[in-house]
Design a protein that fits this description.
It is a single chain. The protein contains 11 helices and no strands. It has about 280 residues and is an all-alpha fold. It is globular and about 60 Å long. Helix 6 packs antiparallel against helix 7.
Length: about 280
Amino acid sequence: MTTAAPTRVPVPADARVTWWRVVRSEWIKFRTLRSSLLLLAATVVVFAALGLGFSAFLSDATIEPGTPAPPGGPSSLDPLGASLGGVNLAQLLVGTLGVLLVAGEYTTGTIRSSLAAVPRRWPVLGAKVVVLAGVCLAVLVPTVLLTFLGGQGVLGDEGISLGDEGVLRAVLGTAVHLAGVGVLGMALGALLRTTAGALTSLVALLLVLPGVVSLLPEAWSDAISPYLPSNAGQAFMSISSDPELLSPGAGLAVFVGWLVALLGVAVVRLLRRDA
């Protein structure tokens, strides 16, 4: 008796897993998930409302530039800081969006279907990052620009223009920072795989850790503080030179380094451990 050799069934071209098909599937997930759209819309509304509100506060004749901001605003107000003051709260919303897009799938178990369809695994996370970053930049760049222009319109003669030195870089940098925080939340969600843990880590990294570092001895604080993700982001969102911050280019490099490092660790865990 002879044993028949196994035959290999060719995979139809329209059934193969390709990078763009994975990206398309993640885009479909994003736009059909109501919570994603609501969080993105909330980010836009909060950023614009606070930016215009702080600008109106600063435009009061009794308020001088550099005065302490109202509760919930930046530590001090200037024409740029007022119109972009919504970034503090908006980053928490967009970071939450990034966390939920990954950790939510682990919570419901739907991540298993995605990984079964894409055996190499890493394209799933990569496609999620591309979709989130692309959508955030497409939505937040015009949001930040329009909020800045609206805020300067409220300020009138006391305002500044996009043509002033460093202003356009700071405005676009704000949109990049918000999109990056969304990716940061996604990396933490993929790394920790729990919504509560990833959200807690996000808040600690952006808001709690800078305060803790400031309590260290001055030499340690000055050495560590500029390299925290929030302070690195502040370096390329500001037009004023602060000796405690990195240069805009260095700040952007450090911020991107945080994203690459956390995403790299998340990919390693994704490849080595089951969902």
